[in-house]
Structure formats: C-alpha cells, structure tokens
Amino acid sequence: MNENVYELAVSAERDHKAASEALAVITSEALAIEQRIAEKSAARAQVIADVRAGNLDESTAALRLAIIDEDVRDLQGLADETKSSVSGAQEQVEHTGRAVRAATERIAVYERGEAAQALDRQILNLEMKLLSALIERYRASGKRDDSLWKLWSPSEALRAAVTAYRLPTV
Predict the structure, then answer these.
(1) Taking the C-alpha atoms of 137, 141, 143 and 147 in order, what is their torsion angle to the nearest 10 degrees?
(2) What's the pLDDT tens digit per position in 46-70?
(3) Which CATH class is domain 2-116?
(4) In whole angstroms, how far apart are CA 14 and each of 19, 22, 103, 169?
(5) pLDDT tens digits for 5-19?
(6) Digit-coded pLDDT (tens) for 74-111
(7) For a surface tag, which of 23, 124, 143, 157 has the fewest beta carbons within 10 Å of its beta carbon?
C-alpha cells in the first residue's frame, strides 16, 4: 500500500495541476472574448459619434453598425459557451483539489500507521530487554524462589502505564 498512497497523491496533484491550467486557459479565452466585445462596443460608439459629427453618412454607418452588432451577437454566444466551460473547469479544479486533500490525508494516516508499527516493535524490543535484565538481576541475587520481590520494583510511571493504561510523564 505504501507505494499506492504516494502514487495516488502524485496522480491527484497532476490532475489538479492540469485542471488548474485548463481553467487558466479557459478563463483567458473568456477574458479575450469579453475584451473583443468591449472593443466592438467602443467601435459602435465611435460609429455613432462619427455620424453625429457628420464624419460618416448614415447608410455607411448603418452597414457598419449591422456588422458590429452581428459580431457582438457571435461573440456573446461564444462568451456564453465559455462561461459554461469556465464553470465546468472551476468545478473540476474544486474536485481535484478535494482529491489532493484526501490523498494527503491518506498519506498522513499511512505514515502514522507505519510510525505506530515501528514504535510497537521498539516497545516489544525494550520489553524483551527489560525481561532479560530482570532475569539477570534475579540470577545475580542468588535467590531461588522465582520472585522479584525486594529485587526490583517498577517506577510509579511504569506501573501506572502498565496497570492503569495512563500516559507516563517523563
């Protein structure tokens, strides 16, 4: 499982990066379309101003306005489609972001489990060392009754940890 949680996290990060980049591209396209619509609006206003100033006859202005209005309708259609694409891309970024957070949490859970197992092995090793030391202490005492009475007593912290399952303070 260890390789798998890391591979899933890398894959989630890669998907999130791709979704974020796609959102940036689509957002840039949407801004470019909005900019073109603004330019067409400015061109429309300029045609009207030219007619009012007498610099452009009405028939030419009507033709230019019709072309500009058609361009704006086309651009507005593109803008509407792009808004939908931006919304979808934003949802994808949010989805992949959640996947990254979930993968990161799975890694943390996995690593905590690995650390707990390593500590359990260390505790077992220390228990074996303590038991071996107690055996040696008993042998060194010359006693023959299989009792550690008066030879060794656990500290209060160790006694509380083993019998009352209290977290020791050291």
Answers:
(1) -40
(2) 999 999 999 999 999 999 999 999 9
(3) mainly alpha
(4) 9, 12, 12, 44
(5) 999 999 999 999 999
(6) 999 999 999 999 999 999 999 999 999 999 999 999 99
(7) 124
Q: What is the dihedral of CA 109, 114, 115, 121, to 10 degrees?
A: 150
Q: Where are the domains of the chain?
A: 2-116
Q: Which residue has the tokens 């006859």?
A: 57
pTM: 0.71
Neighbours of 82 (CB within 10 A): 20
Q: Sort 16 into a burial class: Cβ within 10 Å, 0-12 / 13-18 / 19+.
A: buried
50 in Cβ contact with 61 (< 8 Å): yes
